[in-house]
Design brief:
Chain A is mainly β and 151 residues long. Chain A contains 1 helix and 8 strands. Classes of the chains: A mainly beta (151), B alpha/beta (352).
Amino acid sequence: MTKSADKELLRASFKLEYPYERSPGPVIGKFFEELSNEVLVGTKNSKGEIFVPAAEFDPKDSEHLSEFVEVKNEGVVQSYTWIEKPRAHHLIKESFAFALISMDGTNSAMLHMIANCKEEELEIGKRVKVIWNQEKTQTIRDIKYFEIIDD
Amino acid sequence: MKDIYILAYAQNPIVADAKAANEVELIMPVVHQVFKQTGFTQNDIGFTCSGSCDYLQGAAFAFVEGLSAIQTNPPIKESHVEMDAAWALYESILKIQMGDAETALIYGFGKSSPGDLPFVSTLQTDPYYMSPLWPDKTSLAALQAQLLMKKGLLTKKDMYEALTQSISNAKNNPNALVTAMPSEDDYLTADYLSSPLSAFDCAPISDGASAMIIGTEEAAAKLGLQKIKISSVHHSIETSNFGARDLSTSESIIGLGKKINLKSFELDFAELHTQFTYEIPFIRGLLDLGNIDINLSGGPLAGNVMMAAGLDSIGKSFELLKNNDFNNGLAHASSGPCLQQNMLVHLEKIND
């Protein structure tokens, strides 16, 4: 290793961010617009399979998707990871879970968060529902998180 | 198709924090070492390709600075991949196959210590549906590990064995960062970062660089070294639609195993680009590797330089073939969350 490895490192603050805005396009844009109306929509392929969040193309055969269907704001946990102590950038400051959630009637899963529960209550197959953010930004964050549906 | 051989490989000692040493200072020693191993200078190199991640340095086109580590005057044929340097190797192979070069210099480098790597990796995920939720790299891997455990395909014991085997093997690699063996009790009682993964299950934050030189049959013959041939190399990627993937298996890895005809030769070992403990038993199962030794170099769990670790799997396989009574090695490189993209390389010792 070179000599500079022994030197004290100079430090400067730095904010890691995208310094530009993205256009979501007609499919993802429609999905976000509907989220701000507290409605969940997905896209449907010619086999009748539904993707939520809305996909622009079929991940298997690349079929272009443009038909929208509304789905219920409830779904099933496909996998989860419990975070006892949230870290730097996590949006929820108390213990929560990241989860893959398959909305009812759909053929894919959505990555999101589950809050206001205990780790022991979570399992694959658990039913959860959307909790909306009061302030809408037309982003995936219009869903604040999911909560377990009481039996 | 031309036969292509690995002619030289070098790896910097992997460190947790390279402090004020910049990327150029990390790259230069390994480039000099591969030149020394071959007797080449930059003038003998037909194509130069590097792999790195601009997010680690926090600026667009940050990789250009890395070129200061090599001689670029007179002008050279050069390229870069925003990926692990294993893919820089792949681009170099294509370049040689197209007849544009006889030799290639490949290097990969990464200095992860200045940032919070699991969250820096988040910025490489889907910018609409994923990164705004800040899923860190560990949590995404944990979703896969959890699914495998709940399906009965994986146990914490499997993960502990993968860890202890890696750390024990790390003694074979003088450049390894982690050599301290955790006790089973420490492992099993460690707090989870993201269940079911604790800090023990994650490859260490590492700084470093690696370099490799490859060449045609003619270039290899001139050097008169033991010939290690890249017999087969393939890569494939799964959909970027994270929620549409079946994380309990890997279409990509299974497909690649077939493409490189894994069953057609007697494999001596495998070096896998496994950044989490669970990935070792997972890939062993997917490729049906049986009792084959995995990561005799210690692998990424003993030192994981982002953007060089995949090239290291290939480089370490080259060294294992060169220095031992082995004939066939398998190297793996990976990219993206939950092993989204993979490369498999079959390396073969050619006895004249």
